[in-house]
Amino acid sequence: MASLRAERVRARQQDDALAAQLEQANREIELQDPDAGASRFDRMVNRTAEMFGVLLLALLTVLVFLNASARYVFGRTFIWGDELIIAIIPWLAMSGLFLAVRRRNVIRIDFFVEKFSPRPRKVVRLAADLLSAIVFVYLAWVSMEYVRLFGGDQLVYLRWPSGLFSSSFVIGPLLAALAYLVTFWREARAGQEAPGGRDAAL
C-alpha cells in the first residue's frame, strides 16, 4: 500500500514537473521577437501595423470602460460610444489579419505538405501563397461593391459616413493579398526553402 502511494506521489511530481516545463516553454515562445530575422523595412511595417492595432484596442477598452462606468455609476450611457466601438472592430480585425499574414501566423495544415520532397513542397507553398492572394483580392472586390452601395450611409448617432469603417473590408484584404504576393516573390526567388517559421499558409 505504501509503495503504491509512493508511486502515485512520484507520478504526480513528474506530471507537475512536465507541466512546469511546458508552461516555461510556452512563455518563452510568447516572449520571442515575432520579427526575429526580418529586415529593417519589414520590422517597420509590422510594428506600424501592430501599433495601429494596439491603439485601436486601447481606444475600445477606454470606450467600454467609460460607457460601463457611466451606466452603473450615473445611470446614463453614451450610445454613440457603443456605435463607435462596433464601427472600430473591423479595423482592429483587419490589422490583426494583416499582421498574421505578414508574420506567417495564419492557421495552416502542413502535415501532408511535409511529406513531399523539398522541390514539390516549395511549389505547393508558392501555389498556396498565390491562391491566398487571389482569394483576398476577390474578397476586396466584393467588399468594394458593398462600400459603394452603403458607404455613404451615416451612422445613426455620430452621423459619420459608414464608409469610414466599412472600407476596412477593402483595405484589409488588399493589404493581406499584397503580403502574400511579397512572400510569393521572395520565396520564388530564394534558392532554397524558406525557414519553417515563414512557411506559406495552407
Q: Number of helical segments?
A: 6
- Span of the ends, CA to CA: 53 Å
Structural class: mainly alpha
- What helical percentage do the residues reach? over 70%
Strand tally:
0
Which series of helices and strands comes N to C? HHHHHH
The proportion of strand residues reads: under 5%
Count of spatially separate domains: 1
**What gyration radius follows from the Cα positions, in whole Å?**
23 Å
Extract low-pLDDT stretches. Answer: 193-202
Average pLDDT for all residues:
85
General description of the model:
With 202 residues, the chain is mainly alpha-helical. The protein has one domain. The chain has six helices and no strands.
Write the layout of secondary structure elements.
Blueprint lengths: L1 H30 L8 H35 L4 H24 L15 H33 L12 H4 L1 H22 L13
Task: Describe the structure in brief.
By secondary structure, the chain is mostly helical. It is built from 6 helices and no strands.
What are the main properties of this structure?
single chain; 202 residues; mainly alpha; disordered C terminus
